[in-house]
Amino acid sequence: MSSTNIMQINDDDDDMMSSPPSSPPWEILNLVSHYLDSNTLAIATCVSKTWSTCFSSDHLWDPLCAATFPTLATTLGSVAASLPRHRLYALGHTAALCRQRKPRKPRLSLDRLLFVIAVHLPGGSLNLIKPCNDMQRDPHGLFRFDVEVVEERELSLEELKEARVTWTVAEKDWKAVFVLAEESVGKLASGVDGFFSKELPSPGCCSNTMSSGLVADIRFGLKDSQDSRRRSGGRMSRIEKVSVGVMSVLNWRHVSVEDVLFYLEHFLHV
Fold it and tell me: Is 133:110 a contact under the CB 8 Å cutoff?
């Protein structure tokens, strides 16, 4: 081969190296696309306008939607027929990630809270202030606590029936307070410990017309005084402990500590 021909071949090679690569034919893109998964298809749509048009085609995303999110594909596929299938797949993928996301922990903790319980009685009030971290916690993680009463005041059944209870939750250093139950009227019958309940307001993020579904539950643990009974001929009792908690109106069971801490965050502005 002559030197002239060799130089011509080299020039042709240089021209090929310097020219920008051309896009593959549309038919090739369409053929290859059927072998790509959803992640690769999504990346391919970002390469160019031509690739975006090719790899966003409904006939590629329809089977992916039907296989991965069949309910969503059936429901929205008929209601929103004009919605591109790659958008439908993106909606399903985002919704799935949201369901898998672990819920965050409350910013508020029991160690930062104080319970202030005021029992209003005919002969004067009984005030209890107790840090939450000084109280024994429920082994099942439920929001219920017992507050021991040191004062040994003897009360008749009639006096206990007139009792009113206010339960306030406060942050330490009194940065913020929230009244869970104010002047709650109890239910007391002969031979039965007293209990009080007050429906809690809806959090600030919800409409005032909506119920929180929560109830503040307060109970007296009463102890009979046998000496007083013999002296006066009537039943005399003292409040041995006050039990407080938050219950759900759905099943009338105590809710978890985390649920109540999330609820209190709205009112204590944590």
Answer: yes
- Nearest 5°: the CA angle 137, 139, 145 is 30
Confidence at residue 178, expressed as pLDDT on a 0 to 100 scale: 93
Cross-strand bridge partners of residue 237: 155, 224
pLDDT score recorded for residue 120: 87
Q: Which residues pair with 218 in a beta bridge?
A: 196, 244
In the prediction, which pLDDT does 246 show?
94
Give the pLDDT score at 209: 56
Angle (CA) 216 260 170, round 5°:
75
- pTM (2 d.p.): 0.62
CA-to-CA separations, 151 to 138, 214, 251, in angstroms, rounded: 24, 31, 34
The token duo for 223 is 């102890």
Structure-token match 């909506």, residue found? 210
User: Strand 155-156 and strand 236-248: pairing?
Assistant: antiparallel
User: What does the pLDDT read at residue 138?
Assistant: 87
Is the per-residue pLDDT at 170 higher than 70?
yes
% of the chain exceeding 90 in pLDDT: 17
> E-assigned strands of 88-139?
113-121, 124-131
**Tens of pLDDT, residues 81-122:** 788 888 889 988 888 888 877 777 888 999 999 999 998 888
Q: Which two tokens stand for residue 190?
A: 């002969």
Lowest mean pLDDT among 137-151, 185-199, 231-245: 185-199
- b/e 99-113 (16+ beta carbons within 10 angstroms → b): eeeeeeebebebebb
The CA distance from 37 to 137, in Å, is 50
CA torsion, ordered 32, 37, 41, 42, to nearest 10 deg: -170
- The number of CA neighbours under 13 Å toward the Cβ of 186 is 26
